[in-house]
Amino acid sequence: MPVIELRGIKREYRMESRQGKKSKDEANAESSQEVVVRALRGVDFSAEAGEFVSVMGPSGSGKSTLMNILGCLDKPSGGTYTLDGIETSTSDSDTFAYIRNRKIGFVFQSFNLLARTTALENVELPLFYRRREKNEQPHGARDRKDRAMAALREVGLEARMDHFPSQLSGGQQQRVAIARAMVNDPAFILADEPTGNLDTGMTLEIMGLFQELNRQGKTIIMVTHEPELAVYTRRIITLRDGELVSDKRVDERRSAPDDLAQWNRDHALLADSAAGAM
Fold first, then answer.
1. What's the CA gap between 73 and 67, in Å, rounded?
2. What does each C-alpha distance from 28 to 15, 17, 21, 70, 147 come to in angstroms?
């Protein structure tokens, strides 16, 4: 059974457009007309456990709307969305909150870390608000700390657990955010432009981390507008005008660690050349 299954997903926004109209007889007459914006027009999409999918498309294609529906931040106007066996389209607010907390790990472009808490405390945060299943016992302080430490070790930050976000590089902050996304062992990780605030080297580090997590079996959906990032995933779906127009496997998938190593070598050569010219 797919982890994610969308069938006929539509999202329409209805807005009232008012136009002022003046004449000799009607100084302040107004007419109103309802405008319907069709952001998604019947999208079918599914992802199995262990897939790494990038969602692409130009501005206005429906990427953000689809991301909000995948993340249970919004409901579709029509169609069905089943996540890890739960039909979300008719779920109430409590079920939505449970799904977001337990089934989805969010990674955003801006990291969204709390400035006055350490990396460890940032990663622990979802465990404080963990939505428990029936008869499930709450996690104690020691268990929460152990789980957060394990998540930080998994992203290579075991030596930075007590650092505050301001003491970390952009790439390290995003690693903390990824650890936070994983700490509840979600059904999938939803990453929205996760390298948008990073330079090339840090971008390749984060993409390498995603590839390693995917190799370990993590399911990842990444929204991006950059084709050079999509080639690090296993599958690319493309939206245009609210419709899914392409769904392709990545035949020649690039290795982010290999590209990072080459990038470091190139920069070392440039640095040596610059030093020799002085």
1. 8
2. 22, 16, 6, 45, 64
What whole-number distance in Å separates Cα of residue 257 and Cα of residue 208? 5
Q: What DSSP letter does each residue of 136-150 carry, written as one string?
A: PPPPPHHHHHHHHHH
Domains of the chain plus CATH, in order, are: 1-19+33-96+188-198+214-270 (3.40.50.300), 104-185 (3.40.50.300)
Output DSSP code: residue 165: G
Reference 178, options 186, 189, 188, 163; nearest CA is 189
The Cβ of residue 12 has, within 10 Å, a number of other Cβ atoms equal to 14
Which pLDDT score, from 0 to 100, does residue 267 have?
A: 85
Mean pLDDT of 129-140: 67
Global pTM reads 0.89
Token pair 């739960």 in the structure block, residue: 86
pLDDT at 91: 87
Q: Which two tokens stand for residue 241?
A: 């005008």
Residue 19 confidence (pLDDT): 58
Handedness of CA 6, 62, 225, 69 (dihedral sign): negative
Residue keyed to tokens 């020691």: 142
Any residues with CB less than 8 A from the CB of 53 and at least 6 apart, and which?
A: 47, 220, 221, 222, 233, 234, 235, 236, 237
> Long-range contact list for 81-85, CB < 8 A, 24+ apart?
81/4, 81/5, 81/6, 81/7, 81/9, 82/2, 82/4, 82/5, 82/6, 83/3, 83/4, 83/5, 83/187, 84/3, 84/187, 85/1
